[in-house]
Amino acid sequence: MPPASKAKGDYIMTEFTRLMKGGEEGHAVVAGQPDVSHLLKEITPDASGKAEMPQKADPLHATQIALIKRWITEGAKDDTPASARQQYDMEHPPVYATAPLITSLDYAPDGKLIAVAGYHEVLLHRADGSGIEARLVGLSERIQKVAFSPDGSRLAVAGGSPGRMGEIQVWDVAKRKLEVSASITFDTLYGASWSPDGKLIAFGGADNSLRAIEAATGKEVLFTGSANDWVLDTVWSKDGSHVMGAGRDMSAKLTEVATKRFVDNITSITPGALKGGMHAVTRHPQRDEILIGGADGVPQIYRVFRETKRVIGDNANLIRRFPAVEGRIFTVDYSPDGKVIACGSSYEGRGGVTLYSAEFDPAMPKEIQAIVQKVVSSQSADEKKQLEAWVTKDVKQLKSVPMERGVFALTFSLMAKRWRWAGRMAGCAWWTWLPVRW
Predict the structure, then answer these.
(1) Residues in Cβ contact with 96 at an 8 Å cutoff, skipping those fewer than 6 apart
(2) How far is it, in rounded angstroms, from Cα 135 to Cα 341?
(3) How far is Cα 290 from Cα 304, in angstroms, rounded to an integer?
(4) Could you report how far apart the first and last alpha carbons of the chain are, in Å?
(5) For residue range 316-352, what is the model confidence (pLDDT) as tens digits?
(6) Strands of 184-314, DSSP E
(7) pLDDT > 90: what percent of the chain?
(8) Residue among 331, 335, 330 nearest 416 (CA)
(9) 0.85 exceeded by the pTM?
């Protein structure tokens, strides 16, 4: 049972000792005596089907209540894993025996700070390389995504403790203060992204869900279960009206936020169109186009909103497809002006960073529109050749930097005119930067 990161009342239920201590009503759990354990009374629904706990939520299922009663009857023993008993907070940060794998990086909009995922914490490095500005220590042991808000004042953190809990944290960057700790689902959360107005945060889960919460309160405002596997990354449309999730089911899905309605599969769901799950998605800085990357190692750019009618087996939203990189793509990004894309990959001890030119006209010619509106099986060999020529037009690789152990996170900075990547080599974590002119 993990320690509480943000107390919301007198009674704390997320740490064994404080669970047993109880609150204003006295001892909540009396080992071996379920009938006098106040906790059991609080979670058991009355004749009307309502229960005191959990507050502002549906009562626990009868099977869950029975399990808790059995645990109390059998002695209410502390079975918290040893790895979870170590408590970390801002006064007691982790002490590393070896550097952790860096899973996420993000530049602050002003280019002065770079957030780096660690163990139970996010480290705020000064972007000039002069050292660590702050350590933001929280509940989640595994940090999967860090993302600065559009104005840079806050930092969203998605993570959790695998198989036990997922959490979204929202930090006030200037005050180094945890404003929101939202505990959601029973597994790690992924792919946190901010709405353009900075009011909402979207993220994915291992329960095949895509959710969004209010950044100020942690209140859930969107839930969709349209994915068929883990949702590993999210991104918003330019105006914030829609959110997209990409994941292991080999698709990027579009959801309308106001209605919570699943709208479309942006990518093709035809077998073979994508040869593996998706790990990363990001949007063009000025246009409603998304760059995706995943297990097949092929970076691709799709338009968000369909311009042609759907036909069986189509891949009509595809705008550009780039040559495959070595390994699986774990991270993608656009330069701030949208003219360069980068992807980081890793596979069996090899990988690296590849940069491509993304300067092209995204408008679909009429002759291409006519082709994609045909059922794939009815397209002629010449039409397929024309389509292939269009989705690879003006595609140009700028640089490829091989890296031992591969790359798992990267981010561009406009202010510094450079990009950073992170990876792991010989059992230790590292991150570095390379100037890029555009």
Answers:
(1) 119
(2) 30
(3) 7
(4) 49
(5) 999 999 999 989 999 999 999 999 999 999 988 788 8
(6) 189-194, 200-205, 210-214, 220-224, 231-236, 242-247, 252-256, 261-265, 278-283, 289-294, 300-303
(7) 58
(8) 335
(9) no
pLDDT in tens, 82-135: 655 567 888 888 888 877 788 999 999 998 999 999 999 999 999 888 989 999
Q: Could you tell me which residues are beta bridge partners of residue 301?
A: 291, 320
In this structure, what token pair is assigned to residue 395? 């595609």
Q: What is the DSSP letter of 363?
A: P
Residues with Cβ < 8 Å from 214, sequence gap 6 or more? 199, 200, 221
Cα radius of gyration rounded to whole Å, the chain: 24
* Percent with pLDDT over 70 in the chain: 86
Q: In what order do the strands lie in the sheet with 261-265?
A: 231-236, 242-247, 252-256, 261-265
Contact 147, 192 (CB under 8 A): yes
> How many other CB atoms are found less than 10 A from the CB of residue 109?
17
* Bridge partners, 182 (sequence order): 168
Kindly list the distances between the CA atom of residue 167 and the CA atoms of 120, 123, 181, 243, 339, in Å, as whole numbers in the listed order.
11, 18, 7, 20, 34
* Residues pairing with 205 in the sheet: 189
Beta bridge partners of 26: 23
The burial of 45, by beta-carbon neighbours within 10 Å (0-12 exposed, 13-18 middle, 19 or more buried), is given as middle
In which residue are the tokens 């930090």 written?
Answer: 171
Tokens of 20: 């047993």
Q: Which residues contact 133 (CB under 8 A, 6 or more apart)?
A: 113, 124, 125, 126
For residues 367-404, one letter each, b for 16 or more C-beta atoms within 10 angstroms of the residue's C-beta and e for the rest, the string is ebeebbeeebeebeeebeebbeebbeeebeeeeeeebe
Contact 290, 284 (CB under 8 A): yes
Query: What whole-number distance in Å separates Cα of residue 354 and Cα of residue 12?
Result: 48
